[in-house]
């Protein structure tokens, strides 16, 4: 079978999509390719300046694109709620939880959560829950969370979700990516339990050359580490256009099933296919415990999925 490419994306006309972190990297490519195939896409970004610039760039590349900017700061639950309240379309076919941060120095979100866990998991957990009624009311809807092969760096520590006892930036990143997969696993289970046909799945880009890798070292002024990351992008990484393919596959390919995890064929690069995942990301008990903790921390409860 030929390798799957963006040309294989089915027609998206009439579909409504939200892509978080869509101002750059794989998020931008995801939004662009969905729009190219006819979807109305909301580019949900923290920075209005960068988000509006991305909308202009996307329209320059795809002149008939039906896109708009929506302000969303996943590090602030008030912003998440404002975004969900402002989403006034009656339907939502696709939510792509793409935005994320990687290996940052220890910081806290506006609500006091460790930043990687707060942005990568809790912000998206809250957003998905708040938009869930629209997803449930839209035939063929999907939720796609972008995780990482780095989830293999560590399982979650349910007793220290905010890494307060001991913070190691890469372990915290891996745990946040494990949380993404456990969230999708538990969401898929709960959707099935209430008879919903909404597909919850996950994807990872492999090693995509974006601005994500160098952000942490740059924040701390670690120039050697920043140069090392930039070198890795040039030598190992694949372009954002290729790195976005697993997300686009998970979001649009009819064969995708609930709780699938899609990634590059060769781990760090290649055409999208089913990906290996650590066994702890399929643990029902861990998924339930993380879900309960996430509801408690965010105040967002998935009432329609309670059985």
TrEMBL record:
InterPro entries: NAD(P)-bd_dom_sf (IPR036291), SDR_fam (IPR002347). The keyword Oxidoreductase applies. GO terms for molecular function: oxidoreductase activity. Keywords: Oxidoreductase. The lineage of its organism: Bacteria, Bacillati, Actinomycetota, Actinomycetes, Kitasatosporales. This is SDR family NAD(P)-dependent oxidoreductase. Gene3D superfamilies: NAD(P)-binding Rossmann-like Domain. CDD domains: retinol-DH_like_SDR_c_like. Belongs to the short-chain dehydrogenases/reductases (SDR) family. It holds the Pfam family adh_short.
């Amino acid at each position: 079978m030929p390798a799957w490419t963006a040309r294989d994306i089915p027609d998206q006309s009439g579909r409504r999509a939200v892509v978080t972190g869509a101002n750059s990297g794989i998020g931008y490519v995801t939004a662009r390719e969905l729009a190219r195939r006819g979807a109305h896409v909301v580019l949900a970004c923290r920075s209005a300046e960068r988000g509006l610039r991305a909308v202009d760039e996307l329209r320059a590349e795809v002149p008939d694109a039906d896109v708009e900017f929506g302000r969303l700061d996943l590090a602030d639950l008030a912003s998440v709620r404002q975004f969900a309240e402002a989403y006034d379309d009656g339907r939502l076919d696709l939510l792509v939880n793409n935005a994320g941060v990687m290996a940052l120095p220890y910081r806290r979100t506006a609500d006091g959560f460790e930043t990687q866990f707060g942005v990568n998991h809790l912000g998206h957990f809250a957003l998905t829950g708040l938009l869930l009624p629209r997803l449930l009311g839209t035939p063929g809807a999907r939720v796609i969370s972008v995780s990482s092969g780095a989830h293999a760096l560590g399982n979650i520590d349910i007793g220290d979700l905010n890494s307060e006892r001991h913070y190691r930036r890469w372990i915290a990143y891996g745990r946040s990516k494990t949380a993404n997969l456990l969230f999708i696993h538990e969401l898929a289970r709960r959707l099935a339990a209430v008879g919903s046909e909404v597909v919850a799945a996950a994807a990872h880009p492999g090693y995509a050359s974006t601005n994500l890798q160098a952000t942490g070292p740059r924040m701390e002024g670690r120039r050697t580490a920043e140069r090392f990351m930039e070198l890795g992008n040039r030598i190992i990484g694949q372009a954002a256009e290729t790195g976005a393919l697993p997300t686009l596959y998970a979001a649009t390919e009819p064969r995708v099933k609930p709780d699938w995890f899609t990634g590059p064929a060769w781990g760090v690069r290649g055409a999208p296919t089913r990906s290996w995942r650590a066994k702890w990301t399929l643990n029902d008990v861990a998924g339930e415990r993380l879900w309960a903790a996430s509801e408690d921390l965010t105040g967002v409860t998935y009432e329609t999925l309670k059985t």
